[in-house]
């Protein structure tokens, strides 16, 4: 390599991800051993079958297009983009066996010998994942750099990290006296879990012993099942502390048995939380629960924004950020329902308040709006329905004041159409599934993921089961859902001015929700329905499809990592918008990305496109 051009090449490599992650000495070695190739516009990258060496290519200037052998676009590449990972790990074959590379403009390429890279990675194995053949591993390396859960407080701690591993376990026929002796004399524990036939049937605390036994003069020789709290609230060891706190506040309890596969393994109490420094989100949820007016609740919107910024800037995993923001929205909604009932009086019949969309998926962010519905008992009269519509208007307007906008599509419980008895909802679902035309399909997709937030959960479960049963009997619905979901393609050519839109400032931007995240959510919905899964969370849906054999383990890992990476990009963008005093939106500007983010975005978009193709082959039978 010429001594004249070498400094320029070294400087370029030092800013190109993932080459810039290597030690400086390794970067200089690459700069001195690479080859330079020029392609004129329209020229295809040639391959010499007699040449043993393979290459990792870096675009210095110009633009390239990769197409699969059948002519389908794989990606468009620009300056600082890399390709050729596929053959870095000694897999037989040539680039032309997979895809062709053609210059869209006059293009200058740097060719890095694979043999050199492999030797360097043998010396620095900690950087190997940055150059992996598997896109999900490269995405993982990006997320490991971006996300760190160290010293993030109680947000990211799991129940098992904080809870005591000591809890008393007794049988339902154990006497009260024996139970008290085991709690205090043996286990030195404030709570006992009561078992019967291998199932958890209740709990009793030392406070219960004082109030229900001593104060009431109950005979201590009686069985503990007579004074226990039946059907106790429990928590799993791998759940977040924030979830445990929300349960404690919601049910007014000071301790949660930690249960793993129906086996008590520990106890989490409020004292554990105090010892491990409580955090702002916990205080916010507690404030929400103590609000007495809508105005008081609305005044907390600024604190919700502060929590969001702390979560994002603290590099919390996007799944955890979504969960905390969902818990805050849950708390606001429940409080407004309670305030509405205080204002209007006792509900005239059984009901279930349902949430849908991102709220139901536990994926709330700063742009999440309201998607809700009311399912009423079949005994509901016309006057009952009017009462619930007043309640829904109170709640919907209150949420809007709290910073959760009204749904522009009017998918809210305050609409008469979405405030109906069980039998009407059942007819809705049957009609939508039998006739999957556009309007019915849109209605169905909005309510394909619902979660009961208040009232009688069984009403929600009844209509959900009707939906699943109807889909199982109508294979045409899944085909229609898939055809609709794959009509929009991910932005494979994002950085060559494709699928970009003009924002208010005439800056070309990409709607990351429309062209990426929605595509993944739609695919998760389709695969979950095919697997008979009623879960709402996107990641859990893909895992269910994998467990049913509908997705390979690699495909499942790829799409989940892609989802996490893209949601992280959206959260970062929204946080930046808020910091700058602008309303949060989904319009990301490609010019804001360096080569690091751009490469991983392109990997993500290719993974989405690949899964769309797989879904068409599996679910759309022409």
Characterize the structure shown.
The protein is α+β, with helices and mostly antiparallel strands. The chain folds into 4 domains: 4-133, Jelly Rolls (Sandwich), CATH 2.60.120; 164-232, CBS domain Like (Alpha-Beta Complex), CATH 3.90.1280.20; 317-470, Beta Polymerase, domain 2 (2-Layer Sandwich), CATH 3.30.460.10; 485-620. It contains 24 helices and 20 strands. The strands form 6 sheets. The chain has a 4-stranded antiparallel sheet with strand order 1-7-2-5. The chain starts with 5 loop residues before the first helix and ends with a helix.
Helix and strand topology:
Elements: H1 6-13, H2 24-33, E1 35-39, E2 55-61, E3 64-68, E4 73-77, E5 82-83, H3 95-98, E6 99-103, E7 107-113, H4 114-123, H5 135-146, H6 159-162, E8 168-171, H7 176-186, E9 191-196, E10 199-205, H8 206-214, E11 229-230, H9 241-251, E12 255-260, E13 263-269, H10 270-275, H11 280-289, H12 294-298, H13 301-313, H14 318-344, E14 351-356, H15 357-360, E15 372-376, H16 382-401, E16 419-421, H17 422-434, H18 438-446, E17 450-455, H19 457-473, H20 475-485, E18 501-502, E19 508-511, H21 512-530, H22 538-547, H23 553-579, E20 587-588, H24 595-619
Parallel strand pairs: 8-9, 15-16
Antiparallel strand pairs: 1-7, 2-5, 2-7, 3-4, 3-6, 9-10, 10-11, 12-13, 14-15, 14-17, 18-19, 19-20
């Amino acid at each position: 390599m010429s001594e004249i051009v070498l400094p320029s090449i070294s400087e370029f490599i030092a800013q190109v991800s993932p080459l810039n992650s290597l030690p400086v000495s390794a970067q200089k070695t690459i700069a001195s051993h690479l080859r330079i190739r020029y392609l004129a516009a329209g020229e295809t990258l040639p391959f010499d079958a007699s040449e043993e060496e393979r290459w990792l290519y870096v675009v210095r200037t110009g633009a390239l297009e990769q197409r699969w052998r059948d002519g389908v676009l794989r990606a468009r590449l620009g300056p600082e983009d890399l390709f050729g990972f596929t053959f870095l790990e000694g897999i037989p074959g040539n680039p032309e066996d997979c895809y062709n590379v053609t210059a869209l403009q006059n293009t200058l390429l740097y060719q890095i010998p694979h043999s050199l890279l492999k030797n360097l990675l043998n010396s620095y194995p900690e950087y190997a994942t940055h150059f992996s053949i598997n896109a999900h591993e490269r995405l993982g390396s990006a997320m490991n750099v971006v996300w760190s859960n160290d010293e993030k407080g109680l947000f990211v701690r799991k129940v098992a990290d904080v809870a005591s591993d000591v809890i008393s376990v007794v049988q339902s026929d154990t006497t009260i006296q024996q139970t008290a002796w085991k709690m205090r004399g043996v286990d030195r524990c404030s709570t006992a879990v009561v078992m019967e036939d291998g199932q958890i049937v209740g709990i009793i605390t030392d406070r219960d012993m004082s109030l229900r036994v001593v104060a009431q003069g109950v005979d201590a020789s009686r069985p503990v099942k007579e004074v226990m709290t039946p059907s106790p609230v429990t928590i799993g060891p791998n759940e977040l502390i924030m979830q445990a706190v929300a349960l404690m506040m919601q049910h007014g309890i000071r301790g949660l048995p930690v249960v793993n596969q129906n086996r008590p393994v520990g106890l989490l109490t409020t004292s554990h939380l105090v010892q491990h420094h409580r955090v702002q989100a916990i205080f916010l949820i507690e404030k929400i629960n103590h609000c007495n007016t809508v105005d008081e609740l609305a005044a907390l919107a600024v604190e919700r924004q502060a929590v969001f910024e702390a979560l994002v800037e603290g590099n919390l995993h996007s799944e955890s950020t979504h969960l905390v923001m969902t818990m805050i929205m849950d708390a606001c909604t429940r409080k407004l329902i309670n305030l509405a009932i205080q204002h209007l009086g006792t509900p005239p019949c059984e009901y279930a308040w349902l949430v849908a969309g991102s709220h139901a998926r536990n994926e709330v962010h700063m742009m999440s709006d309201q998607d809700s519905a009311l399912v009423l008992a079949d005994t509901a009269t016309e006057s009952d329905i009017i009462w619930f519509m007043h309640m829904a208007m109170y709640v919907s307007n209150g949420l809007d004041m709290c910073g959760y906008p009204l749904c522009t599509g009017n998918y809210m419980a305050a609409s008469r159409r979405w405030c109906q008895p069980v039998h009407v909802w059942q007819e809705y679902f049957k009609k939508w599934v039998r006739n999957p035309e556009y309007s019915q399909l849109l209605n169905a997709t909005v309510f394909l993921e619902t979660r009961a937030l208040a009232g009688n959960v069984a009403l929600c479960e009844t209509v959900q089961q009707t939906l699943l049963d109807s889909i199982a009997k109508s294979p045409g619905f899944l085909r229609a859902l898939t055809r609709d979901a794959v009509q929009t393609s991910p932005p494979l050519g994002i950085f060559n001015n494709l699928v970009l839109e003009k924002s208010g400032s005439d800056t070309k931007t990409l709607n990351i929700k429309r062209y990426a995240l929605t595509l993944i959510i739609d695919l998760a919905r389709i695969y979950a329905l095919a697997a008979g899964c009623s879960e709402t969370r996107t990641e859990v849906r893909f895992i269910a499809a994998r467990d049913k054999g509908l997705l390979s383990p690699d495909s499942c890992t790829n799409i989940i990592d892609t989802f996490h990476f893209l949601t992280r990009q959206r959260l970062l963008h929204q946080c930046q918008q808020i910091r700058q005093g602008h309303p949060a939106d989904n319009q990301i500007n490609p010019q804001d990305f360096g080569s690091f983010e751009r490469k991983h975005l392109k990997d993500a978009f290719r993974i989405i496109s690949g899964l769309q193709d797989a879904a068409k082959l599996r679910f759309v039978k022409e």
